[in-house]
Amino acid sequence: MAMASRIAAVAILLIFCSASFSRCLADLADDKRALLDFIARVPPGRDLNWRPDTSVCSSWTGITCNPNRSRVIAVRLPGFGLNGRIPPNTLSRLSALQTLSLRSNGLTGPFPSDFSNLTSLTSLHLQLNSFSGPLPLDLAFLTNLTVLNLSHNSFNGSIPFAISNLTELVALNLSNNSFSGGIPDLQLPNLKSLNLSNNHLNGSIPVSLRGFPASSFSGNDLSPIIPVTPVPLPAPIPSPVIPTPSPKHKKLSEAVILGIVVGACVLAFAVLATALVLCRGKSGDNVVSGKAVKGERSPEKAVSGRQDERNRLVFFEGCSFEFDLEDLLRASAEVLGKGTCGTAYKAVLEDATTVVVKRLKDVGAGKRDFEQQMEVIGRIRHENVAELRAYYYSKDEKLIVYEFYSQGSVSSLLHGKRGEDRTPLDWETRLRIALGAARGIARVHMENNGKLVHGNIKASNVFLNNQQYGCVSDLGLISLMISSTPPASRNGGYRAPEVIDTRRSTQASDVYSFGVLVLELLTGKSPIHVAGAGEEMVHLVRWVQSVVREEWTAEVFDVELMRYPNIEEEMVEMLQIAMACVVRMPEQRPKMAEVVRMLEDVRRVDTGNRTSSEFKSDDANSLTPPQITSAGGDPSPQN
Ligand SMILES: *[C@@H]1O[C@H](CO)[C@@H](O)[C@H](O)[C@H]1NC(C)=O
Ligand SMILES: *[C@@H]1O[C@H](CO)[C@@H](O)[C@H](O)[C@H]1NC(C)=O
Ligand SMILES: *[C@@H]1O[C@H](CO)[C@@H](O)[C@H](O)[C@H]1NC(C)=O
Ligand SMILES: *[C@@H]1O[C@H](CO)[C@@H](O)[C@H](O)[C@H]1NC(C)=O
Ligand SMILES: *[C@@H]1O[C@H](CO)[C@@H](O)[C@H](O)[C@H]1NC(C)=O
Ligand SMILES: *[C@@H]1O[C@H](CO)[C@@H](O)[C@H](O)[C@H]1NC(C)=O
Ligand SMILES: *[C@@H]1O[C@H](CO)[C@@H](O)[C@H](O)[C@H]1NC(C)=O
Ligand SMILES: *[C@@H]1O[C@H](CO)[C@@H](O)[C@H](O)[C@H]1NC(C)=O
Ligand SMILES: *[C@@H]1O[C@H](CO)[C@@H](O)[C@H](O)[C@H]1NC(C)=O
Ligand SMILES: *[C@@H]1O[C@H](CO)[C@@H](O)[C@H](O)[C@H]1NC(C)=O
């Protein structure tokens, strides 16, 4: 009988393994030996009928072979009373293994490091055992894994970022272990089911995982302000009709658009109310659960449903929004301006909280890239970088919510109301603008492993923070646009020469743009302006370079600055820094951190010999004669 079945088996092998008969036999024999080695060291509590003289594929309990019976592809031994460590170099020799289930046993010791040899593995179930210690980074080799269930063990350490390599993963269950530290930003496009509950994880839920229900993360020490999902916008916002010649009509259409934007936000906020309550109730947990119930949906409901994940407004940590739905309904709003990346609106709430809502247009980046970039930008907390508060991404609409700065942009401070009864922008403030902006950009350049590029530095994207220092906004958006360089018409004067060819912004091109900004502060002139009777286009950088070459340096400075005494040395130093930033060869430009140091030195040199009252003097009738005379008159009158 046994003989007959053996002959049958060999016949089948002959059919399937005609090409490499001996190799085929050898593989199965190797698998058999590996399994026998395994149970020799981990004897099961019940008989498995694993005997050297029987067929692995047809009579061994828990074993499945491939169709041509040349390899073992599945081992399922749930609840077989297996105790102790998995001996090394046993199961790991089953190199064709696709499914391994050892759940509900008494297995101990670390995650077997040689499992990284099991590269065909698609399902691994080790839950309900007593494994301990950290997960090995070698896990990353199991790239075909779709299900990984390690729940109810004693694994500890952090969740390795290497899990991101398991891109086929559909289900990941690490619940009821002792994992600690932050949750890595796992980029797992196929993940449908996730459970990290009942560990010791802290920090916040990364953007990539915010679509999962709250119960995926319960029983940890995570910060409460996180998943705000899903927030359906009522309907796709219709595209604005931009080319409308009549200014009245234009205003109207923008008002309508804004109404829709705010309406959308309002609805978003409505569902977000529960989350905001969570945010406010940080101090007392009773408040959290109590108030959450008041909302239409519990927080769990509000965050459930991965299918709705695409419709949500995502807030960044900190949640300093002190307004609720009703406030927002009463918000007034106005168009602030159209920029390179879209139109900005100012939304003022009843309690005077003001935010900037920016509708991005021509976004070329996909959702994942967009989210990643937002996460990078949103993480930046610096007094010289405008804070990104929230964002929204859907197919039809991309919104970002920024902090609002009341004094307007440096562009309007510098060029607004020229010639009328304007308050001149004093030298002190200009220095602080340059220094603040430089610090902000230097901070931006540190982000993303030192690779983040601002990409859109210009006076209209620099604001004054509470301390009256410069503060940069709109960073990192250019790289998300369909064309990653701003059109020359909008940004020409700030754009580094090499960007015209490479069509890529870099940190060096940021330095160039910053140099142009400093020249603008020094001269009071726009980067590209019309001058002379011939209405000739003047390129600020080229003009300054030519004037300085002629050694008429004094001529470049803003006439408004002539009233401030004893600043010429500082102005000349600033001019030199700006000139260093705008040199033609990108590699010859200083790094932003160096620029910050140079600017700080400008200040240090002179703070000793001047009192602050002298600085603050912006008495328009000050009779202090200008220290620097404009030899040939102002060569380019203000427009
Ligand atoms: C047996 O089938 C597997 C696929 O299931 C195939 O990869 C392998 O080459 C086959 N073996 C032989 C010897 O034909
Ligand atoms: C299996 O892993 C061990 C180390 O864990 C290694 O020495 C061995 O070469 C691997 N075998 C195969 C077939 O990859
Ligand atoms: C495992 O995945 C790799 C690609 O990552 C693929 O080439 C290979 O065929 C897969 N192996 C199995 C057994 O599915
Ligand atoms: C994991 O992915 C990273 C980058 O995605 C790669 O550098 C690394 O080699 C991968 N590790 C393994 C073990 O495949
Ligand atoms: C993981 O294991 C737990 C406990 O046995 C079980 O409830 C759950 O369904 C498993 N999940 C997956 C994806 O296999
Ligand atoms: C993990 O647990 C082991 C004991 O099983 C312990 O020695 C080790 O310090 C723990 N590691 C961490 C990071 O908690
Ligand atoms: C999982 O862990 C939690 C908290 O430690 C515990 O309350 C719960 O009973 C555990 N679940 C199981 C099935 O043991
Ligand atoms: C994970 O395992 C727990 C119990 O251990 C179970 O309740 C839960 O449903 C599982 N979740 C997933 C996503 O497999
Ligand atoms: C998270 O916990 C680790 C220790 O497990 C600690 O070092 C770290 O500071 C904590 N992080 C936060 C944000 O609480
Ligand atoms: C995760 O597992 C816990 C038990 O550990 C369970 O209560 C919870 O419902 C699970 N969540 C999901 C999404 O499977």
Automatic annotation (TrEMBL):
Q: Where in the cell is it found?
A: Membrane
The answer to whether keyword Mitochondrion applies is no
A GO cellular component annotation in the UniProt record: membrane
* Organism whose genome encodes this protein: Dioscorea zingiberensis
Record field: compositional bias (Polar residues): 620-639
Segments carrying the region annotation (Disordered) are: 607-639
Write the signal peptide boundaries: 1-26
Please name the GO terms that the record assigns under molecular function.
Answer: ATP binding; protein kinase activity
The record's annotation in SUPFAM superfamilies points to: L domain-like, Protein kinase-like (PK-like)
Swiss-Prot/TrEMBL keywords:
ATP-binding, Leucine-rich repeat, Membrane, Nucleotide-binding, Phosphoprotein, Repeat, Signal, Transmembrane, Transmembrane helix
Task: Report the protein name in the record.
Answer: Protein kinase domain-containing protein
Q: Where is the Protein kinase domain?
A: 330-602
Bias category Basic and acidic residues: which stretches? 607-619
Transmembrane regions:
255-279
